[in-house]
Structure formats: structure tokens, C-alpha cells
Amino acid sequence: MRNRKSVRTITIASGKGGVGKTNVVANLAIALRKMGKEVLILDADLGLSNVDILLHLAPRYNIQHVIRGEKRLRDVIVEGPCGVKVLPASSGVQELTHLDAFQRVRLLEEFESFDGEIDVLLIDTSAGISENVAFFCVASREIVVVTSPEPTALTDAYALIKVLFTRYQEKDFRILVNSARNPEDAKEVYRKLAVAADRFLNVSLDYLGYLPFDKSVHEAVRAQKAFLEMYPGSAASRALEEVASRFVEPGREDAKGGLQFFMGNLFAMTGEAR
After folding, report:
1. pLDDT digits (tens, 9 = 90+) for 179-198
2. Is 269 exposed, middle or buried (0-12, 13-18, 19+ CB in 10 A)?
3. Can you list the domains of the chain with their CATH numbers?
4. Are 124 and 42 in contact (CB under 8 A)?
5. Burial of 219 (0-12, 13-18, 19+ CB in 10 A)
């Protein structure tokens, strides 16, 4: 980036599909935008490309066109609700972490020359514990694990944390509980996860907050709208805004790096993994 501005990079991951991770990413981006932050969502769910569908966007191009040299980064990024920027993926770019040297240089140069104002980069990964997910988590400065009160979601969230710790030495995670019945229910989910992580992994889990089960969320998804926009006064919207406020607290800002720093990290790790 020409302005060399520090960009806060946050990867949102989950051990299990169906916990509402992408919906959290989309609405968190809008909440941060309303707080004055310039936000870019990197759709790293490279096999499905769900962010554009959720926000009812129709991008003509995606990151694959950048990799091929057919389009510039600024031509691919689309604008979503409230001015949130989205870098769309497609079903044909599963190989993003397996690019050859020439392709990596091309993509890094695009991020280097991108002159858009960005304060926060939100990376929406695919569900599970694949190598792709791990690379994006480790390359970013913060990792948020989204889970839910379902036992399988809790088990899979622990599995994701375990993989990131044992293979990549990640020790700091922020936990967001989605679709909880009440604050006590969410805290119990966090407690179980924290106890297991402390006993067997010796990692730090930070309780980020929770989003309550709210019918308006499902109605907004069906309408391909962000619930924060469609139902701004709902319980889920109020809780999401509270979660977003914790990302703008003093002392939590990313100390260094930018978009090109993130991509450099990502490709440095892919080189090491070969």
C-alpha cells in the first residue's frame, strides 16, 4: 500500500460449518464501518464464496482474475453495504496457498500498489481445520474462533485451536459464541473450551462476547441482507455492536503490518510448508 498504513488483520474461523461465521464477518464489518473504520473483507472461503451471496452482491470478477493478471486489485474489489469493501473469491481459487513464485509475486505487487484506505482486514475462512484455514489464521494478527452451544461445534472449535497450537504454535485466540440462549449459556460454552485448552494445550482464550439466538438473523439471511441493517434494534444487532466496540478499544490496535505484510506472511508460510 502506498500510504504504508498499518492495517489490523483479523481472521474469523470456526471448527464447524453452520455456526454463522460468515454472517458474523459481514455484520462485524458493517458495525466497524459505522464506527468510522474502513473495512475490507477477504473472502477466503475459497471453494464457496459466500460473502457476496450473503450480502446480495454480484461481482463480475474475483481474486482469480488478479492472480491471472487479467485485472487489478482495485478492479476486483466491490462495495457492499455501508461502504464495506469485499474482495470476492470463487469456486476456482482453492489453490491460493499453492501459487507458484510468479503468481505470488504478482499478487503481492497488487497488494503493495493498492492505494485504498483500509483500517481493518477481515478474513472469512472456510469452516474446518484445513491447511488453507491454518495459513490464513497464522498470517493474520488476530484469530477469532466462532462457535455455538452445540456439542459438535464446541468439539470442533477445540480441534481447530489444537491444530493451530500444535502445528503452528499459536497461543492467543478470541472466542465468540453465536446463537446462545443467554449470557450464562455463552459463558458456559466459553468456560468449557477454556478449561480444556488450559489443561491440555496451555493457550490463552479471550472471551470476546456472544450473539443471542434471534429469529431476525435468519430472516435477514433469507432476504440476503445484513441483520444489522435490516433489524438494527434487534437483540443480535445490539450484541454485535458491543462485540465490534471491543475491536476499537485503545491498546488493541495492530502494531505493525499492512495488506502486503499479511500476504507476505501467508506466502512465506506456504514456501516453508513445501
Report:
1. 999 999 999 999 999 999 99
2. middle
3. 8-268 (3.40.50.300)
4. yes
5. middle
